[in-house]
Amino acid sequence: MKAIFDQIRKLMQPAQWASWQTLIFLSIFSALTAALTSPAPPQIAERIISSFGWVFLILGTWWFVYEPEVKKKLKLYELFVGPWIVGALICVYLFGTWEGRAVPTPTAFVSWPPISTIVWSVPKFITTNPKTKSPLYTTPTPANRQNIILVLLANLVISCWFQFYFVVQNWLVEYPSFRAQGFEQSAFVRELQPSGQRVEFSRGVDLLDAAEKSVKQRLEGKPWAQVERWLSELDQEFPAVRNEAFAQLPQIAENQLWNLDGRVVSDAYDLELHGIWQGPSARTDAYFLTKTCRIAQSQKAAPPQQLQFSSPAPPAVSLPQTQAFGTVQCGAASSPDFLSTPETDG
Amino acid sequence: MFTDVLPLRAILFQLLFIVLAIAIEAMVLQNYLGIGQKICIQYAATANLVVTIVGWLIFFLVEPLLPVVLKVQLIGYVFYDRISSPVLLIILAFIIFISAFLLKLVTIEGLDRILDINQPTRETPDKITPNKPRFKGRAQRQPFSELPNRSLAILWANAASFSAVTFVLAVRTYA
Predict the structure, then answer these.
(1) Chain A contacts of B170, Cβ < 8 Å?
(2) Which of A201, B67, B74, B100 is most buried, judged by most C-beta within 10 A?
(3) Which residues of A touch B84 (CB under 8 A)?
(4) Cβ separation of B81 and A160 shorter than 8 Å?
(5) Contact A189 B7 (CB under 8 A)
(6) Has residue A250 been placed in a domain?
(7) pLDDT tens, residue order, chain B (175 aa)
(8) Are B108 and B43 contacting, i.e. CB atoms less than 8 angstroms apart?
(9) Domain that residue A103 falls in
(10) Which residues have CB under 8 Å from A136's CB, separation 6+?
């Protein structure tokens, strides 16, 4: 037990005042002080103090990873990874985190490799003055210059890969339906958990649901004659449904790639709604999703407001007065059907 | 915002192509210029990394500016490997080839300046044959085609590496 405490003490207690432990303690002290400051909105004091905490933490870590024993342990296949740890801290400090402070920002990711390279190359620009033992700027030797150039370039390529990841994420936000068909054929991206075709990613389902809502709003409970007239004039009436359906969807770039189409397929009034994907597809064929809505009439008692309570006759007299109303029943959206030629009619 | 769709395949292909290009270009440069293997690998590595980075930067600059039609085609190519306009792709490949060559030329000149290498190609023939100083006069009258011409060597190196990459892509597409 005593041995363990001694070891901890030895680790904690700096050998001399100028050591990495001192800096880490300063950093912890700053963090505690920052936590004690008033949480009032401007938070100037907190920001300044926590910045000091970060700077001490970065410098302390920097010092720590260059301790000879630590440096030996931090080698990954002959590559000393210490500068990349320090670089990560610098980037998080400079560019912050988001998503509930859990993930560093894209800027932090993209700038991490080059900033780490700068940390890595600093010792090559510094030499020790033999007389005063103070650091001195020096131009690196040509061999070192070549190394710095290659390491910097390689790290910039890695930055580009990070940036490409974020470009792909933006595409998936703006064009989410691309995911519905899986990326097995892609030469660029891979899903960590590939699951082939997944219709739930296709926003065609959302579009058809929105269209269903819009159709129901127009027909449900409306007098049958009005329903029949609407169906017979579907060509004129449908654009309004289309506009309404698209207006209900989140406004993203992908909406332009969808088309909504509706047609009456049987005399019993089956209204078929098609959500047609007009963008690129994993197969040669374009595809569409279908939702079939049965529009039927039902006999219902006339609405209560037609009852003449004021009239001397009892209300029961008017009960046989029934009227035909439209009802709309829609099924779920179908899985994608492939077209050999994309539907042009819109 | 963050999904599990990672550009892993792009990274693997890019690594493969960079290594392939560096190996081939270093070999071609060594054959043409008769200079050391190490400096050839340095030239090839630096030039190819610079070309890769500049290519990415142009992509990142142009991608947000693309009209929707082209952007959708680009996304279709990246996600589904579908080429909707092969002609555009061929024109692009040609432009990329020329720009890569010019950029490599500039990069290697710049690298020489940074590393304080003074015209290694012109001096190398003398260095290779230091024991035959009497041929120095004749060396100046060498036919032009036998003179190590660095630009030409870089052009050949570029052509060789592009051919290799194209070959790999063709195998991937048709095999």
Answers:
(1) none
(2) B100
(3) 280
(4) no
(5) yes
(6) yes
(7) 677 889 999 999 999 999 999 999 999 999 988 888 999 999 999 999 999 999 999 999 999 999 999 999 999 999 998 888 889 999 999 999 999 999 999 999 999 888 887 654 444 444 444 444 444 444 444 454 555 688 899 999 999 999 999 999 999 888 7
(8) yes
(9) 2-174
(10) A126, A127, A128, A129
